[in-house]
Structures are given as C-alpha cells and as structure tokens.
Amino acid sequence: MHIARYLPMLVFAIAFMLLLVPAAFSTFNDYVSVQVVDMLGRPVQNATVFVTYQRDSLRGLQTISQLSDALGMASFTIENVEIVEGEVDKTVTIRVLYGYKGARREIEVYQHPSSIIIQTELYLLKVKVTDQRRAPLLSRVSAGNFTGYANANGDVAFLVPPGDTTIIADFSNGQQVKSITVRGDTSEDIIFPVYNPIVKLMDDTGEPVKGYVTLLDRIDEADELGMAKFKDYVGPTAVFTAQSKGFKQTARADLSEGTNIIIFFDMHPPEISNIIVERLGDRYARVRAMVAESGIYGSGMGELSDVYVDYVSGSRHGRETMYMDSNSIYEAELDVGLADSLSYIVYAIDNAGNRNSVAGSAVLVILDTNSTSPGIIGGNLGSVGMPLPIVLGGVVVLAAVAIGAYLYLTREKAQL
C-alpha cells in the first residue's frame, strides 16, 4: 500500500532521468577550417595539415590530417564523446608541414575564427629549362627535397624556404646542377647543350658501309648509305664506337664544331709493288719496294705500321726491316755473301693492322769483285725486274752465240 502511494512519484523521477541521459551522453562537435599560405599570402597546395585534439578524458589525444587543396584549404570535424563536457580539454593544436618547413599554431575549439590562416616561410622559385637555342625541354627538376617536371614550355615552379637551395635538372644523358641563395621570389634558367648528331660510316675507298654505331647506352644501325642518327644528346663531347664487317673504330667529336661525323674503316691491306733487287758489291744486296695504302682514307703507314723482308740466299737467311727511303719507297740491305740467287717475301702492315705480302726471286751476279757497281737486277713475279728463268735463258743464249762466233772465226782461219 505504501509503494502504491509513491509509485507516481517514482515514475516521474525515472522519466525525468531518462530525459537527462541523452543530454549527458550527447557528443559535441566543432568544425575547423585551415588555409595555408606562403610569405606573400598565396595559397600553398599539398601542405599537410595536422589537427590534434582530446576526444575524451579517458582515451587522450587524437590526430587527424589532410592535404591542402589548390586554394590551400583543409577542413576538419572535431567530435568529442566525453560524458561530462567540463572534463575535456578543448584546446586544438594545428600543425602544418610543407617539405621540411613547418608552421605551428594552437587554438581553442570555441574561440577560433571560421577560417584559420597559417602563414609558412616559403617563396616561389620558378625554373625554366631550355637547350642552347632556347627551345623548351621536358626535364625532371628538383629543388631541395622537392621534385617536379617541366611542362611543354620548359617551366616548373617550387615553393622553397629562404636560404641555400640546390637545383638539379636531368635531361637525356645530361645533368645540370646550380646552387642559389633564396631571399624572396626568384627565377632561374637551366640550359642544356643538346645536339642531334649524324654519323656516316665509310671504308678507306670512300664507299658507304652498313654497321652499328654506339653512343653511350644508345645504339643505331647504319642504313644503306652508312648513316646512323641520334637525337637529344647532351654534349658537346661525344665518343662514338662503330662496327662494320668485323672492323671496329672509335671516334671522338666536339659536337659544338659540327654534328656530321664521318668514321672511316681501313678494310683493305696496303699495296706492295715495284720490287727491285740489286747486288751491292760481293756481299750485300738491296731490296726496294713501293708500299702504299690502297684507299685514300686508309689509316696510313706510320708508327704503328711495319714493312720487312724475309729472305733466303744460298746458305744464308734472315729478316730485315725495310725503312722508307723516299715517298712510299722502302728498302733494306741483305747480307747474301757470294750467293748468285735470292728468294724473298716482302711484308707490309698498315696502322690498322691490315697485312699484305709479295714473294719473289732474283739472280745475283757479280760483274766485278773489285767494284761496288750494281749487278743484275732481279724481281718477283708480277713486279718490275727479270725473273730467274728469263735471266738464265739469256745467259745460255749469249754463251751459244759466243761459241758459234768462235768456231766460225776458227774455220775461216784454217781455210786461209
């Protein structure tokens, strides 16, 4: 009976408490809008904005972040679920990072303006990348720890802090490095010496040849005209390696002096001709020969070349170096003793290592052992001089004529 008396009051109390519970457990939200600008008030895009706040008294601090948009804006919703609102620290910490420079600002949740502007210590750096003719280049550019790519006009821009900054631009095979000191907005030019070299392959006679040409890590096949082409090479110094028909040639060029490069291959051996053998007294013989490159663009006969003769004369044999006596004429003196014949092989090697040889033989006759006048001239097959069979035949004929004349004179004398 007593419970029934207080039942209406109990129901009213429970209902009143139920009305209070939503109010006690309801969350309270706030909205923070942040704009990031540089030293001149221009929006900073892609800055990282951090907002740190206390979500409730038990779970401590919570941090959320966003990247600023093209207007430098980042918006946040701060939600607090503390049952007792008065126990929550309503201070919000806002931190901005862009590259390696940051700005920090603290605000009260219920005391901040609708838009918070945070100024960062950044300046505008404009970089323009071109070649030596001022044509724009699509280059990869970095400034400090920022990286970007030049557009179709060769332009790229960065926001950088004051102080020393290094600009690095990469294009094709080249790299340009420039150090500057930033004190405010600034513009810098990066210029690459860019060339489009054309390489022509030819043999030592001036005829084009097919092959391959290498320039750094690039390779191009020469066409029927012997032409190989390269584009956007950063010079001016270039080293080309060409290969054709088993031959290899390297050429170094200064492209600032011209981009048309000709590489010659010495593909033909030197020519050996006009071999002459002559007796010098009773002991020595001289071998003379004309040695010349077969092509006008050959490597030549110089320090890397070699001309020599191997010979056999009676019981004597050896090898002698032939030295140039006059234009393209090489000669050597051979110790042949009293031998009456000589077999030889003349060798010639040009600067490119091409080798040729000519073999032959000659008769050596001493006309006067007390004289140093030349004896009979000999030669090789196909060269100037009389080969050994012809000389022997001539001697036999002369002997027969002399004997016939002697017999004729003897008979005439007997008849008288």
**In the CATH scheme, what's the topology name of the largest domain?**
Immunoglobulin-like
The major sheet is characterized as: 4 strands, antiparallel
CATH top level of the largest domain is Mainly Beta
Count of distinct structural domains: 4
Second-tier CATH architecture of the largest domain: Sandwich
CATH homologous superfamily classification of the largest domain? Immunoglobulins
Order of neighbouring strands in the sheet with most strands = 3-2-5-6
The helix content is 10-25%
The secondary-structure class comes to mainly beta
Tell the overall outline. Answer: rod-shaped
Report the span from N to C terminus. Answer: 205 Å
Beta-strand residue percentage: over 45%
Number of helices: 2
Q: Tell how many strands the DSSP assignment holds.
A: 31
What are the segments in which pLDDT stays under 50 over at least 5 consecutive residues?
Answer: 18-25, 371-403, 405-409, 412-416
Q: Taking all residues together, what is the mean pLDDT?
A: 82
Rg, Å, rounded:
50 Å
Q: Can you tell me about this structure?
A:
With 416 residues, this protein is mainly beta. It folds into four domains: 2-119, Sandwich (Immunoglobulin-like), CATH 2.60.40; 123-192, Immunoglobulin-like; 195-265, Immunoglobulin-like; 271-392, Sandwich (Immunoglobulin-like), CATH 2.60.40.10. 12% of the residues lie in helices and 50% in strands. It has two helices and 31 strands. The strands form nine sheets. It has a four-stranded antiparallel beta sheet, with no helix packed on it. A four-stranded antiparallel beta sheet has the order 10-9-12-13, with no helix packed on it. It has a four-stranded antiparallel beta sheet with strand order 18-17-21-22, with no helix packed on it. A hairpin with a 2-residue loop joins strand 17 (211-215) and strand 18. The longest helix is centred in the C-terminal third of the chain and has 28 residues, at 388-415. The chain is rod-shaped. The N and C termini lie far apart (205 Å).
